[in-house]
Design brief:
It is a single chain. This protein is an alpha+beta fold. The chain folds into 3 domains: 4-178, Formiminotransferase-cyclodeaminase, Chain B, domain 1 (2-Layer Sandwich), CATH 3.30.990; 183-346, Alpha-Beta Plaits (2-Layer Sandwich), CATH 3.30.70.670; 355-561, Four Helix Bundle (Hemerythrin (Met), subunit A). It is 51% helix and 14% strand. It is built from 17 helices and 13 strands. The chain has helices at residues 17-28, 55-72, 101-118, 138-142, 149-154, 194-204, 266-279, 295-308, 317-328, 338-341, 343-346, 360-368, 376-399, 408-443, 450-491, 497-522, 528-561; strands spanning 4-7, 10-11, 33-41, 46-53, 88-97, 123-127, 174-178, 183-189, 209-210, 231-232, 239-246, 251-258, 284-290. Strands 1, 2, 3, 4, 5, 6 and 7 form a 7-stranded mixed sheet that branches. Helix 15 packs parallel to helix 17. It is globular and about 80 Å long.
Length: 562
Amino acid sequence: MKKLIECVPNFSEGQDMGVIKMITDEIEKIEGVKLLDVDPGKATNRTVVTFIGSPEAVIEAAFQAIRKAADVIDMSKHHGEHPRFGGTDVCPLVPVSNITMEETAGYARQLAERVGKELEIPVYCYENAAFIPDRRNLANCRAGEYEGLPKKLEDPKWKPDFGPARFNPRTGAIAIGARDFLVAYNINLNTTSTRRANAVAFDIREKGRPVREGNPITGKIKKDESGNGIWIPGALKACKAIGWYIKEYGIAQVSINLTNISITPVHEAFEMSCLKAQERGLRVTGSELVGLIPKKAMIDAGKYFLRKQQRSTGIAEEEIIRIAVKSLGLDDLKPFNPKEKIIEYLLEDPAEKNLVSLTAEGFANETASESPAPGGGSVSAYIAALGVSLGTMVANLSSHKPGWDERWEEFSDWAEKGQKLKDELLFLVDEDTRAFNKIMDAFGLPKGTDIEKATRSTAIQEATKYAIEVPFHTMQKASEGFEIIQAMVDAGNPNSVTDAGVGALCIRSAVMGAYLNVKVNGAGLKDKTFLESIMSEAEKLITQAQSKEEEIFRVVNDKISK
């Protein structure tokens, strides 16, 4: 599955859009990156840029943007309302999908090291990329701002993590880090009262509300012995919130910033808002997402509400997201289009034609055409996906079987495993064709000079190796499906035992079909050690698949005979 990270650099220029365009042009030059947003602020003289892509592409784009900013922004002439200490002031990386925070922090440190070494800009690593606890907080790193930077760099305690401890009046310094995704999210209330919306906001936000003397609304704020105000914390961590009235909609909202959705996800903020609103005689009518959201956050929300209903979570991704949209009331004020609000969907190329997006008839027609791809490898992956889907169907039917209510979670877990495996196999349907195309591209390279011949030969061998690995991976993933099929034959809904049996037949055929692709593609590989290792494992998978299918088929036959 593709790893995605987001980058949100803040540049100390918000008035000259020509300058900003020179910076964003550098980002858009990098393949594998998509520019999502450019948000300038005149008063702050600062622009927030958002782009996303694979980790390697993102850190390359970030580096080029920082390099260009160092050329076109002169911090010695900068003035603005927002705290800042560098031309590229901060550059956080945010994990979006299929990547951990630890991995993201590693990429942030790679970027920081390169900026310090090649651009000679002092770099402080903050938040999850921090080497020193005191530097986790961005405010500490930026304390004293640009004007205090010369003195700060002389202090051994504030020696940069990378780059010289030397003041550069043009570039200043930069903070590079890794943080969680921030979601801007509004809760809709059945009231026009800002005061009541604020009350709910104070109930849920981490900061809470101040303790007052006498009147809880207008009374003087109580202070501790040190003279600091005393606050009652709210119900949710990593949550900022305030109430306001929206004239456009004619309602009051609780406006929320979720600063760490791994601590407080969207669905928890919604549920707590519902609870606190109800305690105050109000009702939540829905919610509104401002900006974008990672797909995982929507999937987590959908699964949360399905579990509340004691329904299987092992259903298709689009259905889970539909449950999330309806449960959160995201279409309360206006239509909610997941394709426009979920980051991963925005990155999809509408021009790209994937086999798995075809109709069943379209896939068959494409396979039957005169083109050599899709071929046996793609079809093997597809029938494996169908086999696993049959097992997943039996799990879902079993979770809803009357009289088996107490077992819904058992079968939901199997269905989740099946959905994940099905998605991986569907990915391999197209990946097998892409592997074939890599070989064709390699054979199409020029072969005139000795260097060109060597380059072409290397490319052919690397592409051939990949064309072996893809069907072998199909064999491995297909074989994992037997566990689900076996469980459904043994303990699933008996009315669907033949469906599970057909699933076993599909998986066995997929393993054998993919094996043929491994074998034929290996004929042209020079690395015989690699090939022998793969073939040895592939032959074991063939034997296991045949044995497992016979065992399952025997049980299915016995059950339907009775």
